[in-house]
Amino acid sequence: MDESKLIQSIQKGDIEAYRHIVEKYQSPLLRYVVSLIRDTDLAEDAVQETFIKAYKNLQSFDRKKQFSSWIYRIAHNSAMDAVKRNRSVPFDDAILAEPALRVEPTIAEEIDAEITSNQVSECLYELPLKYREPLVLYFLQQKSYQEIADVLRASTTSIGVRITRAKQKLRAICKRKGVTP
Amino acid sequence: MSTKDIVNSVMEKIENKEVKMRPKWHFTLLTTSLVAGIVSLGVVAGYAIRIILINVTIASSSTPRYGLRQQLAEMTSNLPIEATLIAVAAIALLIYLIKAKSELYKYKLRWIILGAITLSIIVGILFTLILPGHMENRGEGSQQHTPRGKRIQKQ
Fold it and tell me: Considering CB atoms only, which of B7, B22, B26 is closest to A19?
């Protein structure tokens, strides 16, 4: 069924239709949130919270707009909230780069083989969140500039600039670490 | 928790009515209170801007400016109390709905207040530009005094 019609039926009270939405978005959202907060447990909680928030506020969703951008924005907010709530979990990017605080490889592999199986991911996590987030959305989540702009509440120009800078920074980090992307 | 658990956990909460969808009126109320608050604050800001401008003009003038003093007295006595009350109520309701009831698109309270003030000043300036006559002539007294002001200017 078309996503817009699915949303419409949920808005009209078809609870079971929401299962399809959760099933469709759970994996990409989990990958996205893990890339933001690098803690699998927190990420899972944040994703669950995302689906609950989305359901609660589904009547405010404008079906003319993209649902994926809307739910990614909620996921972004939930991830940021999770970090704020768990101050013990380091959010500073420099600290995040410490090996001891990284996501365990075995779990991370389940979450996203694309990220962890590649050495480039180590460089990616050293990028400041400002640059990492649009890069993850663009390359790993295959979002368009417009969709990223909607999620991050920025202009497409700004997103383009951030992605270009992110690539340059990533290249520099990889070079410093002796990793060939 | 596996990804499968997320589906079951979310659906369980929805099916057990632990999580309920907010009705449409909640969001309509949110938007209405925002618009009402901004418009009302704009009216109040418009009056405030006019009063400040008149005060500045009087203070910087070498002549007594009786006309302006009269106008100032009228504006002060005809302050739109109802608009102020609507503005305060609407902004309070908006903050309550955002902070207590809505978890989406969180903005810090200071940004909401700052945004509301900025918008109201802009709307206020627009009001003073578009409706200066309305604001000056509010009330019966002003209708009597405005022609006299014009006569003074002619002399």
Answer: B7
